[in-house]
Amino acid sequence: MTTQYDQQKLEHTPWVEKYRPKNLDDVASQEHAVRILKKTVLLANLPHMLFYGPPGTGKTSTMLALAKQLYGPRLYKLRVLELNASDERGISIVRLKIKNFARLTVSNPTAEDLRDYPCPPYKIIILDEADSMTNDAQSALRRTMENYSLVTRFCLICNYITRIIDPLALRCLKFRFKPLDNANAFARLSLIAEKELVRLDLDAVLEEILVVSKGDLRKAITYLQSAARLGASLLAEHSISVNLVREIAGVVEQPLLDALLEAIRSKSSADIMAIVKKVVLEGWSAQQVSDQLHDLLLLDEGLQSEKKNAIAKLLFETDRRLNSGTDEHVQLLNLLLQIAAVV
Amino acid sequence: MSLWVDKYRPKKFGQLTFHPQITDSLKSLAATGDFPHLLVYGPSGAGKKTRIYATLNELFGASVEKLKIDVKTFTNASSKKLEFNVLSSPYHLEITPSDMGNNDRVVIQDLLKDVASTEQVDFSNPGKNGVKHRFKVVIINEADSLSRDAQAALRRTMEKYSANIRLIMVCNNISNIIAPIKSRTLLVRVPAPSVKEIGDILLHIALKESVKFSSNDPEKLRKYVDAVARGSAQNLRRSMLTFETISMQLELLNVDNLSSATIVLDWEVIIQNIALSLRRDKSVANLAKLRVTFYELLSHCIPSRLILKTLALELASSETSHCRELMETAAVFDERLSLGLKAIFHLEGFAAKAMVIMS
């Protein structure tokens, strides 16, 4: 039964949360992982697991759905410990909180729960965003994972598997979550659009959303929701256009890019300095600009491979520097001047 | 008596002049009574904060302007007490976690969770169109200087408590924001206003404050205010401050004298002099002499990366033939500055390298 309160609360929930898959069948794409996990639900036996993959591919969603399917809503609270980067996860927490939870024996499920759910006799500890755990904390987990494996299973979730220390990674069954393919993501998006009564001009809009979100379903849903909200009162006909989507995603406009390319081709440093100043003043992010330059230049048929090679190197260097928090203006100017010298 | 910047700060959507598109978008977001997490970015003085407050005003009414400052205390992992200033109204909080340096993660973890896990119960103010607001807004300033740890801590909090909390992050550039955060927010880009838009605002203020000009020829007036805008690099806040300073200093503004329209700050003059001396005298002795100047700048709290950037751009624009090499070096040293600790090494390193390139 949904009360008015719940109803209102649901309205204020972002669609990303609202449409989080409730069971494994709902998980879009990732057939491989889902197939294996479904088997484990039937057998009610779970190894330690490690999910890794880019953001927005459904790692957390899959794990939460799996846990819900195994235990049902009541038992879930008792049996699942979810820790993420927003919780303190230093070595002391691993030693106290995680260890204490891990060594508890499991309570007997009620007959009611047993009827509806498999309720396997172990607990699950979900360590979300495990790549932000320190190495010390990770090593402290090693023995804990083995000692209490009878009553506790671990599930580590991370973006970069390289940041998980080997001893931990080797104790787990690894699942790689790949970026969503367009067909699945498209189906999911159009389902949401339908349920939320979003009126779309064309399928082209959804396709555009998929292009700008690059396989990140969460991003795609956020864009869809933002576009729907903006579109609701902005346009008389209550629909979302392709341009609106591009604007929300912060994609650099084509004319500006053309101007950039022209400045590069002219090889005049004064021109380049002027255009970079303009780009920075308009607030475009240097990372977005270099991303789009990457697409444009490396797919350009007219450039020789050696030149592309050199450009790719430059782009890589700039991207790395931007990631370590350098000044956008200096880096972007440098990038363009260097590219101009190569082209 | 308040500064013109504060006096003429628009409070509602209707008073905002430039970027009508962004204003309309925010307005339609506010009209639905709800919005996703926002990430507002753009150069400083472009009106990011003003727009955010206008949005809050639209959502919650005038009571968001009743601000008070609380001091919260936290204890970090090594049980050290930390004090942290929080600016708050009944409907929102404004924090600058980067004030805390490396401890920003503790603030994010404790404060946000604290706010996020309590639900807003709001009977008195049903808001416009009868929507009750069940969420509190948290404005995070300088989000680009949040540490990686703190950003990672934000990720799940943003999702888990999304029914109770909305984040608005404000930053200058989004390269430092990690991808998972970007994929959870709606990006709002606020470009710097054009020279003409700043000019319009300045003229409007001049009229209101009855600033005296030497001639009232509209074309000349326009040229003058444009010079003010250009002189402050299209930063609206700085143009307004400059304009106020000029009109305080001079009884009568001479519109024909455009050089009076710009105020070059002391440190900028010093950096220009450094650039000049670097080009003129490429010797070790000069380098040693410049060290004193660099130290002087640093001790006056001019950020080291700003010094490097200004110096590099100054050099590059005057030495066009070596522009590329200069910028390449600047990019390298910029990275070292942001990773390293001792700024003077890198500044001197850049100066020495620039001398070599130019000779």
From TrEMBL, chain A:
Main localization (coarse): nucleus
Assigned keywords, A-Z: ATP-binding, DNA replication, Nucleotide-binding, Nucleus
GO biological process, one term: DNA repair
Domain AAA+ ATPase: 45-181
Record keyword Nucleotide-binding present: yes
CC annotations in GO: DNA replication factor C complex; Elg1 RFC-like complex; nucleus
Signal peptide: none
The UniProt record lists the keyword Methyltransferase: no
InterPro entries in the record: AAA+_ATPase, ATPase_AAA_core, DNA_pol3_clamp-load_cplx_C, DNA_Rep/Repair_Clamp_Loader, P-loop_NTPase, Rep_factorC_C, RFC_lid
Compartments reported by the entry: Nucleus
GO terms assigned for molecular function: ATP binding; ATP hydrolysis activity; DNA binding; DNA clamp loader activity
Taxonomy, superkingdom: Eukaryota
Assigned protein family: Belongs to the activator 1 small subunits family.
Name of protein: Replication factor C subunit 2
Organism field: Australozyma saopauloensis
UniProtKB/TrEMBL annotation, chain B:
Pfam families: DNA_pol3_delta2, RFC_C
Gene3D superfamilies xref list: 1.10.8.60, 1.20.272.10, P-loop containing nucleotide triphosphate hydrolases
Domain of life: Eukaryota
Keywords noted in UniProt: DNA replication
Molecular functions (GO terms): DNA binding; DNA clamp loader activity
One cellular component term from this protein's GO annotations in UniProt: Rad17 RFC-like complex
BP terms from Gene Ontology: DNA repair; DNA strand elongation involved in DNA replication
Stored SUPFAM superfamilies: P-loop containing nucleoside triphosphate hydrolases (SSF52540), post-AAA+ oligomerization domain-like (SSF48019)
Domain named AAA+ ATPase: residues: 34-192
Name assigned to this protein: AAA+ ATPase domain-containing protein
